[in-house]
Amino acid sequence: MEKLLSTKTDLKIVPKSYILPPDSRLGSIKLTNHGVPEKLLQDVLDVTEEFLKLSAEDKAIAFSEDPKQSCGLYTSIDYMKEQVVGSYSVEVRKLSLCLLDLIGKGLGLVPGYFQDKTELTEVQIMSTAHCPPCPDPSLTLGLPKHSDVNLVTLVLQEVEDLQVLKDGQWHTIKPLPNAFVVNIGYTLQNISNGKLRSVEHRVVTNQKVARTSVASFILPSNSCQIEPAKVLIKDTSPPLYNGFTFKDFMGTYIEDIHQKKPPLERYKLQV
Ligand SMILES: O=C(O)CCC(=O)C(=O)O
Ligand SMILES: [Fe+2]
């Protein structure tokens, strides 16, 4: 994979095992040997944990109700920390786009499908989730059950509390050292005309250790039109979903999540 990052357009070197189907067992891929330096992975988790250990007053300085407001304050007081988070976000974006190239190849899309239409992968959001040890894990979750709204999410995790739902059963995704967990989001499910499916996941709590994870999401711009890729539509495989602008989908996604409805259901076509 290291080679891939520097020779992105030459996909002939990709071993078949990197191309679809990913992990058909659980619908969630563990990505190793990806070329992002191990030290950078550890450093970004360390910087995140340091931030979370700050006092509530210090963290409040970086707080904003506005989701468009970036949290630059903490890392910008320290050049080294800014470098870590900056380099990490660049590397993880490169890797995500590379992965989307491979997914596109696996689906039979034209080379560069995700990157040539720059609007499709214009936005990157990084988030962190922190769960302190919980005296009674049966009483609460770290993150409730959901599927991601975007194209792909790369999660760094060290503690095994991430679970995915498969055939009505929750399965724990065991962390592998220096690996990313890759989750497919609803936007990619629509583009792939259902060939790839977003996976429902949640984070449970545990009694013994605190857990911190760092997730990076690749999303379209708000005005981007999302629809099943034309090359995937044939007499034998009609479109499964209506198109939408990403902004409209974000709105209905939030509404449907609150009402516990599957967010792509209202866009489904009768076939
Ligand atoms: O913390 C994790 O392992 C998962 C995070 C996640 O699912 C999310 O932020 O959407
Ligand atoms: Fe998620």
Automatic annotation (TrEMBL):
Single GO MF descriptor: L-ascorbic acid binding
Keyword annotations of the record: Dioxygenase, Iron, Metal-binding, Oxidoreductase, Vitamin C
Matches recorded under InterPro entries: DIOX_N, IPNS-like_FE2OG_OXY, IPNS-like_sf, Oxoglu/Fe-dep_dioxygenase_dom, Plant_2OG-oxidoreductases
Domain Fe2OG dioxygenase: 119-220
Pfam families: 2OG-FeII_Oxy (PF03171), DIOX_N (PF14226)
PROSITE patterns in UniProt: FE2OG_OXY (PS51471)
Coiled-coil regions listed in the entry: none
PANTHER family tied to this protein: OXOGLUTARATE/IRON-DEPENDENT DIOXYGENASE (PTHR47991)
Family listed: Belongs to the iron/ascorbate-dependent oxidoreductase family.
Protein name: Oxoglutarate/iron-dependent dioxygenase
Species name: Parasponia andersonii
